[in-house]
Amino acid sequence: MDSAAVKALLQDIVEREIRISSIIRRIGDGQVDNIGLLDLNQDIRAETKILREKLRDLDDAAVDCPAGEDRDMLMKESKKHCIELTNFRTALRKANLQCQMSISNRNAEELFRTKDGYKLKVRREERSKESIANSAADVTNDLRAIARVMAEQVDRSKMTVDALATSSQHLEEVRSEFKGMNHVISQAHNLLTKYGRREFTDKLLIFAAFAFFVACVLYVIQKRLF
Predict the structure, then answer these.
(1) Lowest mean per-residue pLDDT among 52-66, 117-131, 182-196
(2) How far apart are alpha carbons 121 and 115 in whole angstroms?
(3) Tens of pLDDT along 76-124?
(4) Residue 153, CB half-sphere, CA atoms under 13 Å: how many?
(5) Which of 46, 71, 134, 165 is in Cβ range 3.0-4.6 Å of 65 for a Cys bridge?
């Protein structure tokens, strides 16, 4: 095994030991129940099994290493971690005993509080039911208020639609009146155009009559003089 592989193996062993030590501390704290204690012990067994395999690999690496300082260092590391593994077993037994005592004390306290706890539970359930009933009443009142608001909005919308319909009717009447006025204006325009043409014709006739009169006067004067 080369030096890089040995270094990675030693780092893995240290990390496994840190995890095992953390689990043992959690067991010693006694903050778990029986199921949690079983789960933590299963985790310890799994980590310990892997750690033993890693230590065997470290022993094999020490045996395969040529005699010298590196081999002595690997042998010392292997011995140190084996001692650490033994210490873990002792610490685990102690932590399990502490956790079992904590669980037993909690169970005993729970038994003493059972009667009072049951009464407290009943009172809590009664309060919970009362709170639920009050909440249901509040929700019902809120729904009624929302229904009233929606009804008012519907009424306002209906009034708005009626107003728009009335406005549309007025606009239609105004449009009809404008159409009638447009027809009248068109007829007035035609009449004015017709009267304009008639006025022009009358002017031509007056001018022609006046010219004829002047011609007759000139003719009469000419005959009298000559």
Answers:
(1) 117-131
(2) 10
(3) 888 888 888 888 888 888 888 888 888 888 887 777 766 555 566 566 6
(4) 6
(5) 71
Instruction: Report the Cα 65 to chain-centroid distance in Å.
Output: 61
When mean pLDDT is compared over 18-22, 169-173, 212-216, the highest value belongs to 18-22
Q: Are 59 and 51 in contact (CB under 8 A)?
A: no
Residues present in the chain in total: 226
pTM of structure: 0.47
The CA-atom distances, in angstroms, between 113 and each of 31, 109, 117, 127, 184 are 19, 6, 5, 20, 103
Q: Which residues contact 115 (CB under 8 A, 6 or more apart)?
A: none
User: Which CATH architecture does the domain made up of 3-112 adopt?
Assistant: Up-down Bundle (1.20)
Least confident of 5-9, 17-21, 42-46, 185-189: 185-189
Integer-rounded Cα radius of gyration of the chain: 58
For the CA atoms of 30, 33, 37, 39, the dihedral, rounded to the nearest 10 degrees, stands at -140
